[in-house]
Amino acid sequence: MSSSPSFSTTPQSKEDADYNKICDEYNHLIETIPKANGWRGEPLCNYNGFWLNTMILKSNFFLQSYFKSQTTDIFLATVMKSGTTWLKALMFSTLNRHLYSFSDHYLLRHGPQSTFPLLDFESYPITDFTSFPTPRLFATHFPRTLLPSCMIPCKFVYLCREPKDVLISYWHFMNKLRSKDLPPVSLDDAVDLFCKGIMDYGPFWEHVLSYWRASLEYPDKILFLKYEEVKKEPEVVVRKLATFMGKPFTAEEVEKKVVENIVNLCSFQTLRNLEVNKKGVENFGRVDEAGVENRHFLRNGEIGDWKNYLSEEMKRRIDGITHERLKGSGLIFDASAIA
Question: Whole-model pTM?
Fold first, then answer.
């Protein structure tokens, strides 16, 4: 297992007096925290019950100390490979529909991942977001229990997806990002890791439940969506998003079919066929990173794709864990995606 990176003890800027203390806390934690081999050949660390790679764990420390939310902020939260790219496109297009025409839209020239920041890749010094227009949109894969306390009162859109589909999508994605010097992760190993909860931001079930339970307690603050519902009734979901984000569609907009135009613009087929999503690269604001090709964010998008890969034994194992972990929570997944 490769060794974990440490913070430098001397920041480029001395503006924040707490920086060295954060460095010390992180360096001590990284030496003692439980670790496991990750899907990309790098270690994952078990931090407060969730698996994070060292870079994301470091970013969490920075967010806890330096991120300043505004009461009007809106966050998209997801487990990786649950439809984040699609929801980013829908949320951005819905909230900013007054800024663009559909014939010359931002999404026709830029990948959906660029529409608003993924906070999980923040480093020191943290980006100054104060100039962003309100309401500010942000995305995160952090479970609710790892969020900075300042974010808790804000609005969240949470998107979840049937776990077997998440597994298959995540498996494909991680093998694309994995070093070519390493053999790909086998499906057997992928299922085993997933069932043990060992994946970025996992376990899957505890992540979903952290937002599901909060949505029951604060329904006006958390819009809990299922990927399968968005897929089947996208226009209904777009209307929900607009109302939740404080910008419901007017009668005139409905008459002009603005909802339908947003759905068509952000459809999986439209996005995947755009040149920018075939060749573009997203580095999430990190100039020191090679980035991820946009095409890797839009692989398949179909409900039940797991049926093309998982054996009956694999299906039963995952379904059994899902039943046990979600028992009594009131959360169930679409039967058509499970069967």
Answer: 0.90
pLDDT in tens, 36-85: 999 998 999 999 999 999 999 999 999 999 999 999 999 999 999 999 99
String of DSSP letters for 103-152: TS-GGGTS-GGGSS-BGGG--SSPP--TTSPSSPEEEE---GGGS-GGGT
Estimate the crossing angle of helix 234-244 against helix 84-95, to 10 degrees: 60
pLDDT by residue (tens digit) across 231-271? 999 999 999 999 999 999 999 999 999 999 999 999 988 98
Q: Is the pLDDT of residue 280 over 90?
A: no
Active site residues: 141
CA distance 201 to 50: 6
Question: Mapping DSSP to helix (H, G, I), strand (E, B) and coil, where does residue 286 land?
Answer: coil
C-alpha 315/C-alpha 306 separation (Å) is 9
**Helix (H), strand (E) at residue 208:** helix 204-217
Q: What count of Cα atoms within 13 Å lies in the side-chain half-sphere of residue 202?
A: 20
Distance CA 113, CA 85 (A): 6
The mean pLDDT of the chain is: 89
Q: Give the position of tokens 């998003």.
A: 241
- How far apart, in whole angstroms, are the C-alpha atoms of residue 307 and residue 291? 30
Question: HSE-up of 253 (CA within 13 Å, CB side)?
Answer: 15
Q: What is the pLDDT of residues 147-205, one digit of tens each?
A: 999 999 999 999 999 999 999 999 999 998 888 899 999 999 999 999 999 999 999 99
Written as one string, the DSSP assignment of 17-84 is TTHHHHHHHHHHHHHHS-EEE-TTSSEEEEETTEEEEHHHHHHHHHHHHH----TT-EEEEE-TTSSH
Please state, in angstroms and rounded to a whole number, the distance separating the CA atoms of residues 60 and 141.
Answer: 11
- Contacts of residue 62, defined as CB under 8 A and 6 or more positions apart, other chains included, come to 22, 122, 123, 124, 126
